[in-house]
Amino acid sequence: MTTAALTPAALHRCLADETRLTLILLLGTESELCVCELTEALHAPQPRISRHLAHLRRAGLLHGRRQGAWIYYRLNPALPDWIHPILEASRDAAPAAFVAARQRLIDAGTASRRQAACHAESTSALFSSTSGDIA
């Protein structure tokens, strides 16, 4: 789906799921995030995060880029203007899942530090609150 086909109803269907809403809000606060960063921030298994990211990408809300084995996502820069106030209002309402996930990203340090840990396959050590949760 292109952004031209993105209707208010389609946007709200995407945002009606708490995981997708949290993903969109996190990506609105960072320039881009790796799937492993999102997995750790949301305390969710990688297949679940990837499934939701694919849904958002198909809806036209996200762009992804592959760098080696990793995929980085960001908000689609061509989103229609009417979407931004909706995302801002959602972020201002600060759903608990978003607040917790955002805090885990902040606690993990800079994007380059988080990504270095991802690439070294040691994110469980980086995200101390999730140590032992990764299978």
UniProtKB/TrEMBL annotation:
GO molecular function: DNA binding; DNA-binding transcription factor activity
Domain (HTH arsR-type) ranges: 1-94
Pfam families on file: HTH_5
Keywords, sorted A to Z: Arsenical resistance, DNA-binding, Transcription, Transcription regulation
SMART domains in alphabetical order: HTH_ARSR
InterPro entries in the record: ArsR-like_HTH (IPR011991), HTH_ArsR_DNA-bd_dom (IPR001845), HTH_MetalResp_TranReg (IPR051081), WH-like_DNA-bd_sf (IPR036388), WH_DNA-bd_sf (IPR036390)
Listed GO biological process terms: response to arsenic-containing substance
Keyword hit for Cytoplasm: no
Keyword Membrane annotated: no
PANTHER family listed in its UniProt record: ARSENICAL RESISTANCE OPERON REPRESSOR, TRANSCRIPTIONAL REGULATOR, ARSR FAMILY
The name this protein goes by in its record: Transcriptional regulator, ArsR family
Organism: Chromohalobacter canadensis
Lineage: Bacteria, Pseudomonadati, Pseudomonadota, Gammaproteobacteria, Oceanospirillales
